[in-house]
User: What shape does this take?
Amino acid sequence: MTATDRRPAAMLRRGRLSWRRWRRTRPFWGGLFVLLGGGEIVTTVRAPLPVVVHFGLIGTASYVVPLVIMLCGLLILVNPAQRLFYSLLALVLTLVSWVTSNLGGFFIGLLLGLLGGSLAFAWAPTRPKPVVRVPDSDESPATS
Assistant: This one.
């Protein structure tokens, strides 16, 4: 095996490790579930079903609410410092989608949004562990 053969594997491993590091520094699963919940609600609004209900000015709220939910999911992923605000906004808008967007995307989008908002709200960043120096056995404390 030549050096050029090992290089892509090392780059792939480095990319995977940096992805893992990025994912662990933010409420990844919460943001992803909020994003998927909003996407599912938008999909059911656009569905060509006879049970689709539109309220208001040609169903404007039924499009705006899930798009803002998706935006909250994206912002949870990008800006984890403001996760509390975005997760609470996503939770409230997910509950609003019950009325505006076909029972919250026929319950599936509602459940995904509530699960993701709750996960993002409950997430806390990990703190690095302090380094504790243990003295060697042959080192004795100096007494004067």
Residues 3-24 form the longest helix (22 residues).
